Amino acid sequence: MKNTPEYSANYKGCLFMLLAMAAFSLEDMFIKSAVEVVPLGYAILAFGLGGALVFFGLMQFKAEATVPEDIRSKAMLVRVICEIIGRSFFALAIILMPLSSASAILQATPLVVVLGAAVYMNEKISSAHWIAIITGFIGVLMIVRPGPDDFNPASLFAVASTLGFAGRDLATRAASPKLSNYQLGFYGFLVLIASGACLSLIEDKAFAIDSSSALQIAAAILFGVIAYNALTIAMRSGSISVVAPFRYSRVIFALILGIVIFDEQPDLMTLSGTFVIVSSGIYILYSRRLKRVIAGGNG
């Protein structure tokens, strides 16, 4: 059994999913550290520019078109808008609240994808799956805590980024399969340049970048590119119902980095909410009836 092609593909997919989630968490860590010196707008601009240049080089190496015909579509326009929303708001979230809490809220993305597929793509969802979706959102509320005492307004940025990434995943499903991973990556990072430039104009902050923050941004770019490629390989390897649940390992990496690097101390309610979100998502992802819904990418 262990030597079958299916087993090998699943094993490969799980390993690359773990690599992607670890790389995404390291990218978040370096961005969070860099913005202690560099304004967020400039950090996003540099991150977008660096990632776009890397993917542009990969496109040239593979002799792929820089402006493919299929890039001019409604699905790609929606994907670009959602990419900006997801990336920008998550960047705001991780600098204004604990990395572990922001990443925990982000784990609701697959639940939103399923919900969006039901609303906009007429996917059939069983009553058990609706219960799982509602339970997952209860887990988000356990972390956000929308009350007068414990509510952190920055958590709304994490919620907005979750909606953005879910929209990007749904738009990716609708995008032309002729678009390569490198082309999608190039345009995904390219839009961050404009987003970062606009945000830097709004911030209008003077700063002096040092070697440490420059290295942190460079490291964020490196791990961002690794994460995107690893995620794409993972989602195209093996069974989605086997591979996809490993995307929840991101919250574990984020918890470890948050505690070790930023001295975060997530409370019992945050940990409980994280468990509820992950459990609900894994239940849905393990359902083969909906495996086609969760086939899009996440960052």
Strand element count: 0
User: For the terminal residues, how far apart are their CA atoms?
Assistant: 33 Å
The helix-strand sequence is HHHHHHHHHHHH
Poorly predicted runs are 288-298
Q: By helix and strand content, what is the structural category?
A: mainly alpha
> Largest sheet, if any?
none
Mean pLDDT, all residues: 81
- Percentage of β-strand residues: under 5%
**What is the overall number of helices?**
12
Overall radius of gyration: 19 Å
User: What is the global morphology?
Assistant: globular
Percentage of helical residues?
over 70%
Oligomer: single chain
Short note summarizing the structure:
It is built from twelve helices and no strands. It is mostly helical. The longest helix is centred in the first third of the chain and has 30 residues, at 5-34.
In words, what does this structure look like?
- This protein has helices at 5-34, 40-61, 74-96, 99-106, 109-120, 127-144, 155-174, 181-203, 211-235, 240-243, 249-262, 268-285.
- The chain is an all-alpha fold and 299 residues long.
